[in-house]
Amino acid sequence: MNHQRRDALKAGSGLGVLGLLATVGLIRPEMAHAAWNEQAFGAKSLDAAFEVLGAGKPAVSGDVVLNTPDIAENGAVVPVGVVSNIPGTEYVAIMIEKNPYMLAASFTIPEGTQAEVQTRVKMGQTSDVYALVKADGKFYMAKKEVKVTLGGCGG
Amino acid sequence: MASPMRIRAAAKDGVTEVRVLMSHVMETGQRKDSAGEVIPAHFITELTAKHNDKLVLSAEFGPSVSTNPYLAFKFKGGEKGDKITVSWVDNKGDSRTDEAQIA
Prior knowledge:
The complex is a heterodimer.
Chain A lengths: L2 H9 L3 H10 L13 H5 L3 H7 L6 E2 L3 E4 L3 E2 L5 E7 L4 E8 L6 E6 L4 E9 L5 E9 L2 E11 L7
Parallel strand pairs in A: 1-9, 3-9
Antiparallel strand pairs in A: 2-4, 4-7, 5-6, 5-8, 8-9
Chain B lengths: L5 E7 L2 E7 L22 E8 L2 E8 L8 E7 L6 E8 L4 E7 L2
Antiparallel strand pairs in B: 1-2, 2-5, 3-4, 3-6, 6-7
């Protein structure tokens, strides 16, 4: 375990330190790919990610179901499933509020594919996990806290 | 070149469930090696899945997706023996395409 990094994160409230590292050029976002939504994946806060995706302030909906464990023993592999029962769901995104880059994955759901995806994500620490769903041009979300006993983003 | 993906697809009651296990380091760019050097980010950015020639899912991943990513989804239709094709591209421009048949 990299204790220096842990201390640095604690000392600098995370984002501040990362921002500093980025300006000194220690972290280079090598994320240059044509179609990939670099802006959304580079978003460091929930509001910023929502804004880039054009979601504004999505309504919390009971029809969006987020399947995650309540407690994840290993933050490196946290199973996350999203089911949307809203008709016409065309887009699903998974976000982890306290990760350095919030947006974990996004899915475009064509006609005929069910709005039900499952994957596994890394979580640096206990955090709220969000599922953002777009249906008929409107955004909905669900939120759930996942407690992490061993972080998955450290060294 | 990355190892092959493991793709399982099963049709049941008119719905096909596809499960994919990719082999990829999914390096975040946040970690340091033992010498204190930042390990450069290396992760899958885009993924598409096709049923025969029809697109059934496209996805974008960030570095938060776990090492050796797992993905499961369902689509309507699909017959036994139909072809499922999954392709990904990572941030270094590597790519991989694998096929499987619906069981």
